[in-house]
Each structure stands twice: as structure tokens, then as C-alpha cells.
Amino acid sequence: MTTTPHILILGAGAAGSAAARGLAARDDVRVTLVTETGEAPYTRMLISGVALGPTPPDLIALPLPQVEVVADTVVDVHPSARTVQLATGARLPYDALIVATGSKPRTLPAGVVRGATTATGSRVSTMHSLADALRIRELLTRGGRPARVAIYGGGLIAAETASLLHAAGHQVAVISRSHTPGVGAFGALVAERIAADHAATVHTHFGRIVQYVDRSEFGVAITLDDGTPLVADFLLVALGTIAAAPAPWTAGVDVDERLRAEPDRVYAAGGVATLHHESFDPRRIDHWEDAAAQGTHAAKAAASELGLGEDPGSYLPRSPYMAMIHGRMVSGVGYIGGAESHLEDTDEFVVRHEAGGTVTGVTGIDAVGTVYQWGSQLHGSPA
Q1: Which residues contact 217 (CB under 8 A, 6 or more apart)?
Q2: Number of domains in the chain
């Protein structure tokens, strides 16, 4: 008797939900989606609206696809036995596995937060989860006056949050380890423009490291590595993310250009996956649209390996993003890591990012239409 192949998906964020959605309508495969114990999935890219605006948490809830859902925590994956161990003791077998457990925020090194750690730590937050967003909302309104917010980081979340907080009347200081923050996220040419806007709009401390965070009478006292003291109501840590991978993986799941991991019939997508491709350096691409695209691709690749469809081929990053930062619309498509940057000879501020003579990504300022048109032309061939 022929049994229906079983695809098991770990994680219900952008990548996992997209993978499940891509398989939900099929009648030739059984799909199980494992969510974290107690987790109510939500759209992570919208949590800034909860933290900094009036968005109620229920409006960012992420509807789950019509597949079997198991609410349990993954303890371990056994690729040789093709089973997944859950916290309740249950074991789930699979014919193909998609690991989409996402990422977790990079936090301050041990010893940086000093003194009354619990009291001080309550005023140090990342902005990665809905719980973070609700904590930040409470901190912003606690004093009954505009808040003093220090932001440690220079990427997309740090830049957009600094802009939104300043526009709302809060006092903002941006601390960045780099002298030009955001190069990894935007490319050097766009990052330089954003850095100049930061310097003209908020307090900046570029090329500096947060050495200590102590409790102060009304918030936190921050000491930078050059001895500069800062006082804020709270510190927002935006130092990027690291993979949140289940055992036996520790630093994320390495995948090839088809999103296949080395264990047979294992795939990974989203913030947990490190993509290896001959056209660019290994890289985790941790933003919502790209994670969803990876999840969709991984679902097709897994089905193909089970003999249930055509091979989707290589995954190539083409996903768009945009953010309003200090009154400028910053946008991008594709992948810019390790690429050479070239300013387009147009009236708009548009930058091509090329690896080996091939355009892998495009970024720009106040040029969303032009930037997005590049999406189908990236990587040397039409999408």
C-alpha cells in the first residue's frame, strides 16, 4: 500500500507559514506545521506599529494555512531516523523536513549590564518580538513626557526606529559600532546618506561601543568605550540577529542554492538558513519578504525531491524592502552582501550592487519604482 509522503515544517513565521501555504492545497502530500509552545504567530515586520504606534497586537496576527498544526517545542532533530523530538515527548516522523525556526536578536555581551540587573535590564530591550514591542510601548509612555531613547545599532531596524521616534517628538541618540552605520544593510553609498541624515536630526555616536549600562534614577546610565556618558529612559539594542536553530544545528543551517541542507531531505529557509551560492558569499538574509520567498521555494524543492513536482532550481534573492528614514524613502531589492556598488547615471539616487559583473541587488533613495523594476532582472536572468 502506498502511503502519502509527509512534509514536516518547523516554525510558523514568514518562511514556515509560506512553505505550508504553498503545500496546503495539494492532496498528494501530508503537511504538518509545528509552532512553538504557547506561540500565537504574528507578522514580525509589523511589530514597530505596536511598539511605536497605535497598532493593537491582534491586528498583526498571522493566519495559519489549512494544514495540520502541532503546538509544541522542538527539542531535537534526528536526520538519520527522519524524526523530530518534541518537548512533550512526542516524536514526529517525516519524509522531508523544512527547518524554518527563524532568528533571535543579538544581545549585549555578558557583564555590560551592571548593578541591579533586573531593574536595569527591564530598561534594555531588543525589538524582535511582540513581547519586545509591548515592553517598548510601555517604556515610551511611562514617564508622561517625551522619552529619551538610546538606540545601539545601525541597520534597518535601528535607522527606521530612530526616525519614527524622532518624528513622534522623543529624544533620540544613535550609537553605532561602525563609523558609517548600515553598510551591510543598505550598501555604502546609501548608508552614507542615512548617516548624514542621522547626524543632522538626532544625537549620534558613531564608531563607539556600549561598554557599560547601569541603573540611573530615572532610567539607564550608558558609558561608551571612550568614556562618554549618556542618560536615557531606556536602551534599544538593534545589533542584528543570529539563527534560532534546533539541535543538532547550533549556528544555523547551511543550505545550498536549492535550500537543501546536507542531511538527506532536509531544507531550511528564512532567518535560520545560511545560503551558499557560487555567485555570492554565504549569507543569512533575515527579512520578512525574503524569508517568505525562501519558504515557498523550499516547499517546492521538498515536493520535487519526493517526486511530486518539478525542481524549482536555484533560489536567488529578489525580494524587496522599503523604509521611511528621516523623510526619505529607502528601498532595495535582492542581495548586496560582498558586492561592488555603482551609482546609476540617472537623476534618481539608485545604486547597483554587482558580484562578478552580475547585478545581485539594487538600493536607492526616493526611487522605489525604479529600484523595484530591477527585481526581475537580478542575477543575470529574468525571474
Answers
A1: none
A2: 3
My answer on whether 46 and 132 are in the same domain is no
Q: Is 73 exposed, middle or buried (0-12, 13-18, 19+ CB in 10 A)?
A: middle
Distance CA 304, CA 301 (A): 5
Decide: 25 and 110 in contact? Cβ < 8 Å. Answer: no
Closest to 150 (Cα-Cα) out of 70, 208, 226, 84: 208
Quote the CA–CA distance of 370 and 270 in Å, as a whole number.
Answer: 26
pLDDT recorded at residue 1: 46
Q: Are 365 and 193 in contact (CB under 8 A)?
A: yes
Which residues form the domain of 157?
107-239
Mean pLDDT computed over 6-16: 97
User: What is the Cα gyration radius of the chain?
Assistant: 22
Task: Take residue 41 and report the three cell numbers written for it.
Answer: 504567530
| Domain-terminating residue out of 239, 270, 294 | 239
CATH number of the domain bearing residue 66:
3.50.50.60
Chain length of the chain? 383
Residue 135 CA to its chain's centroid (Å): 19
Number of H helices, E strands in the chain: 9, 26
| Number of neighbouring beta carbons within 10 Å of residue 324 | 14
State pLDDT tens for residues 109-153. 999 998 766 666 789 999 999 999 999 999 998 888 999 999 999
The last residue of a domain, from among 272, 305, 338: 305
pLDDT digits (tens, 9 = 90+) for 164-209: 999 999 999 999 999 999 998 999 999 999 999 999 999 999 999 9
pTM of the model: 0.94
1 within a domain of the structure (yes/no): no
**How many CB atoms neighbour CB 383 within 10 A?**
9
User: 232-271, pLDDT tens digit by residue?
Assistant: 999 999 999 999 999 999 889 999 999 999 889 999 999 9
* Termini Cα distance of the chain: 40
Cell of 211: 561598554
User: Is 253 in the same domain as 288?
Assistant: yes
Spatial distance between the Cα atoms of 104 and 99, rounded to a whole number of angstroms: 15
